[in-house]
Amino acid sequence: MDIKQYIASGVLELYLLGRLSPEEAREVEANALQYPEIRAEMDEIELALEAYAQANSSPLPEGMLDSLMDKIGNPPSATPPPSPPVGSAGGFGLGRIGPWLLTAILAIGAFYLFNRGQDQMNQYRQLQQQFIELEEDCGEQQTRLAAARDQIVALSDPATRQVLLDGTDNAPDSRAFVYYNPEDRKTLFAAANLPEPPAGKQYQLWAIDADGPKDMGVLALDLTAGAFLEVPHFDDVAAFAITLEDEGGKPTPDLSQLQVIGNVG
């Protein structure tokens, strides 16, 4: 027998931990009786395991093990598990280290299963949050898609009139469009070329009828050229105009700051 290879195989540790079958355990015991080197190695391993078990087996707080086992769904049995078989009369096995090692194994196992359960719960919560975010994003996408579909329908309607708002002397290069449908009572706005307003200023849209200008709201400061916005609708509008007002808008337009204007055909 190659004694060094036999010792290095780990079979002695498995024997001392009670992890071998009865037949394998008897073979180890026979080899230990036959070869003093194997017996000496087993004694050293047993002492090392005993020292490790004692060093790492500080008493658990009362109720901790039961609590951990409850959390992982495996309440501890009222009857302790049977001890692993002890070796022959030569003193092999877990006779001395069993109680400490069993406590350490149970504690480590319980902590491992509990932590693994916590990790799985955290992963589940992360996936759940990602699903909620994706669901919300899909809802927003559906809303934008529905709005775009409505805009396409409105723009393709023969009753919709395209009104060009051309630049004035204040802003000769500025352009914008209003799409006005008096039958469906829907009005859309699109900026074609509106420079970024100066600090503290904001564009304001107006509908002009026989009674004068009506406020249609201020335009967003980050307005994207070509984006269609649904704006308030007014009946019998004769023209649309945009003025440059103080940020937040005003109830009446400052006509000296007229930027673009267009008549409804």
Q: Count the helices. How many?
A: 6
Please tally the β strands and state the result: 8
Please tell me the overall pLDDT.
Answer: 79
Count of spatially separate domains: 2
Q: What sort of overall outline do the alpha carbons produce when their principal axes are compared? A: rod-shaped
Residue share in β-strands = 15-25%
* Unreliable sequence segments: 85-91
Q: How much helicity do the residues have? A: 40-55%
Query: Which class of secondary structure composition applies to the elements?
Result: alpha+beta
| C-alpha Rg (nearest Å) | 42 Å
Distance between the termini: 108 Å
Q: Could you explain how this protein is built, in words?
A:
The radius of gyration is 42 Å and the shape is rod-shaped. It has helices at 3-8, 11-16, 22-34, 36-55, 64-71, 98-156, and strands spanning 161-167, 175-181, 186-193, 201-209, 212-218, 228-231, 239-246, 258-263. The chain has 2 domains: 3-117, no CATH class; 161-263, Sandwich (Immunoglobulin-like), CATH 2.60.40. The longest helix has 59 residues, at 98-156. An 8-stranded antiparallel sheet has the order 5-4-7-8-1-2-3-6, with helices on one face. The N and C termini lie far apart (108 Å). It is α+β, with helices and mostly antiparallel strands.
Question: What tags apply to this protein structure?
Answer:
single chain; 265 residues; alpha+beta; Immunoglobulin-like; 8-stranded antiparallel beta sheet; 21% strand; rod-shaped
